[in-house]
Amino acid sequence: MRLRLASSCALVALSVPWMAVASAQTLKRVGIESSDPRALAERFTEEGYDVLEGSVKSDSLELVVSDASLAMLELAGFAPRVLEIGRPYKDIQAEQAAAAGSGDAVPSGYPNGAQILTSMSNSANAFPAICQFVDLTATLGMPATVNGNHLYACKISDNVATDEDEPTMLVLCGSHCRELAVHVIGLDTITKLTTLYGVNSQVTAAVDNYEIWVIPNANPDGYDWVFNVDNLWRKNRRVFAGGIGVDLNRNYNFGWSSPCSGSTFVPDETYKGPSPASEAEVQTVKALQNRERFAKVLDYHSYGSETLWGYLCWGHPWGGMLQLEAIQISLATGYGGAERAPSAHGEQWHDPLAFHGAIGFLTEVGSQFQPTYASALANEVPDAWGGTLYFANRPITLSGHVTDSVTGAPIVAAITYPTATFTNGETNASHAGFGRYHSWLPAGTTQVKFSAPGYASQQFGITATSTSSQVLAVQLVKDTTATFYCTAKTNSLGCVPVMDADGNPSASAGSGFVLSAASVLNKKAGLLFYSTVGANGNPFQGGTLCCKLPIVRTPVQNSGGSASGNDCTGTFVFDFNGYIAAGADPNLVSGANVWSQYWSRDPGFAAPNNTSLSNGTSFTILP
Hints:
Blueprint: H1 8-21, E1 28-33, H2 37-46, E2 50-51, E3 60-65, H3 67-75, E4 81-85, H4 89-100, H5 113-126, E5 131-135, H6 136-139, E6 152-156, E7 168-173, H7 180-195, H8 201-209, E8 211-215, H9 220-228, E9 239-240, E10 243-244, H10 280-292, E11 296-301, E12 306-308, H11 319-333, E13 339-340, H12 350-355, E14 359-364, H13 373-378, H14 380-392, E15 398-404, E16 414-416, E17 436-439, E18 444-451, E19 458-464, E20 470-471, E21 474-476, E22 482-486, E23 497-500, E24 512-517, E25 524-531, E26 544-550, E27 554-557, E28 563-567, E29 570-575, H15 576-581, E30 593-601, E31 611-613, E32 617-620
Parallel strand pairs: 7-8, 7-11, 11-14, 12-13, 15-20, 15-21, 22-24
Antiparallel strand pairs: 1-3, 1-4, 2-3, 5-6, 6-8, 9-10, 12-14, 15-17, 16-18, 18-19, 22-23, 24-29, 25-26, 25-30, 27-28, 30-31, 30-32
Helix pairs in contact: 1-3, 5-7, 7-14, 11-14
């Protein structure tokens, strides 16, 4: 949040001209001299200014400012020098082409928005078996941008037309539209993943083992503005009473309300928006994040030649692990291991890191926003590919599936870490589609707990290294109190008992379970336990009878006070520990499948005459 550098009256005086000419103004890049530029950069960042991180030198720094922000700097006593005034990038690129003597049109340089989409579509058409061109806005049912644009991605996988049971990865570029090299990095990523498939072993492994989504242009409205009006523009193009645009990389949910979020001052280049995920562009990316639950996320920006990790003013219990991984990405990118904390909260990669158990990072490429196209192709693009390829092949520390122990159906299970302290609402869970999960763990032993409603939780101590990869299949056992009740009278037997169990009762050692029956008048009743399944595959046929338990029968009084029968309402508590210890059934051991069934019949009849049986329910004895 900005700490106003000008007095309130000066701010009011500035607001009128800003509102009047906001749409016509272009931004300015300015330099400020300082005896301590690093401290001044931190101050300006906290106040919402757009500090160019790579510009902080020993005696100066640079900012991109609106006219309103420039006036506030001057009123605060600074003497900013205007180094550049924003203008259409297409003009700059044409001048560069003319100076180089090529005489080529714009397509020989950075592509405009339409050309980015054409390049993506061409890749999908050339490699239809492994690449799809996806209209994310339409597919996910999200709103179009202010200017009516859609967001697009390329999905790349070995069976791209199928929603495969594979981990997913996201490469996102261009949230800040003026950072031209990163859009080309997105297109180059698509090109290399498709053209090198089957040729390069690392590329082939990545495409075979992952579903990789690449978004080269996450801010299409802003990108068009950069090309046609103002090459220094950073935000989207939503119009507010006090200015234009939201910084999309400050608009995501995680940390949006924290002290380290973006600015609340609309004219600022880091304005975070009126509410979390208020922008159509962010809503679309978040919908993709929520659907795919990415295991890996890499966000490209410029500039700074470093990789960003973790949170800014909040702690992460595994910050050391994230920092070490950021160093590895930086090394693979050719930046010598340079890394730092992020510039703010509310950035795109923070949401999957915090809410989906992903491992996410932001890499600042190069040393300027808009190197010549030739320079970008020679430097920023190949550098970024090294980091992307490393990250795509980085093994996931712990992964697998969470399923029902009996049916094998996928389960959405919460994944928590009892020995780690997450204090900012972080979550992780298995995916609904296949029950797949991922978890990134630090070196050493970490307790990992899997929990789902109606199931007994399971906890494991996972020992990991910085490069380890483990697969753990988690089969959860249902854990509920099974009750029996009567259906409506359907025949001369009266009430027909039905087993009602949301899940299967726990049979873990050291515990028992409770089963009850209610309102079975004038019946004899009991409970049967069979271990194993019969030779023909059916329960209760060929299995070993464990026991019969009688239900307590109590007299029932009619309205006149005389006895009308016996109500077989009762409760059983069965202790597996005692039963197993007694050795009554050698088959009743850890891992054995046990079936139970309720029965009742009229007195005086021998079984099976007039016997009513519930559905059977099964469970597995845990260690």
